[in-house]
Amino acid sequence: MDSVVSEDHEYLVPKRAITSVEDMQIWEKSEAYFEYLGFIMALNEAVKGKSLSVECPESDVTKGMVSLLDKLDVWIEETPPIEQPQRFGNQAFRTWYKRVKEGAMQLLQEALPGRFHRAVPEIMLYLSEGFGNSTRIDYGTGHEMSFIMLMCCLFKIGSLLEEDKVAAVTRIFNRYLLLVRKLQLTYRMEPAGSHGVWSLDDYQFVPFIWGSSQLVGLYLCVLLL
């Protein structure tokens, strides 16, 4: 999973391209779609049989991304829920989200070495979109996907390397999950849509893929005991 982006690559701010069923069919045949699936499967293989506490290399970028998420956690504490009549969707989330969106560039610049700062205008949208919708005050698998795409981009530009794959799941993504769960509980965020039988959880999807891989071998050990 080495970098495939050349030094003279031109970075572009992402734009929404899927607005219809027809667009979804194009997306499912696109290079980006298969890159996304390939990324999930590569990390799935990397964490097979490995617990969250497994010892693994933790690069400066890994630590930087965890620190970034730690900072966003502090911002939640600094933005408590407000008193309001409706039960769900506390409007204080909009204040927190605005701070994230406005600070996304600086947050990523602090997390990444200077040589990767050229990529920040392109990848920072995946960061800010990874925590929910500030209009509806909801969170769902599409927001989770946005953060996964951010992680994928970090590998594509070469800031995360092959040896960072385990830490990407057990350190970065795990910290992300703790953060978004805190957002959901603190601001009473509603699920972004209902998946019914298509998903085990209204908020998250990928943890069931990577988590099941982490359990490979564990069940057999239990049986042997």
UniProtKB/TrEMBL annotation:
Reaction catalysis annotation: [protein]-peptidylproline (omega=180) = [protein]-peptidylproline (omega=0)
Record's protein name: Serine/threonine-protein phosphatase 2A activator
Organism: Cryptotermes secundus
Protein location: Cytoplasm
Top-rank taxon, per record: Eukaryota
Assigned keywords, A-Z: Cytoplasm, Isomerase, Rotamase
UniProt-listed GO biological process terms: mitotic spindle organization
Similarity remark: Belongs to the PTPA-type PPIase family.
Calcium keyword on record: no
Key word Isomerase present: yes
InterPro entries xref list: Phstyr_phstse_ac, PTPA_sf
UniProt-listed Enzyme Commission number(s): 5.2.1.8
GO CC entries: cytoplasm; nucleus; protein phosphatase type 2A complex
Main location group: cytoplasm
Annotated SUPFAM superfamilies: PTPA-like
Cited Pfam families: PTPA
A molecular function GO annotation: protein tyrosine phosphatase activator activity
Its job: PPIases accelerate the folding of proteins. It catalyzes the cis-trans isomerization of proline imidic peptide bonds in oligopeptides.
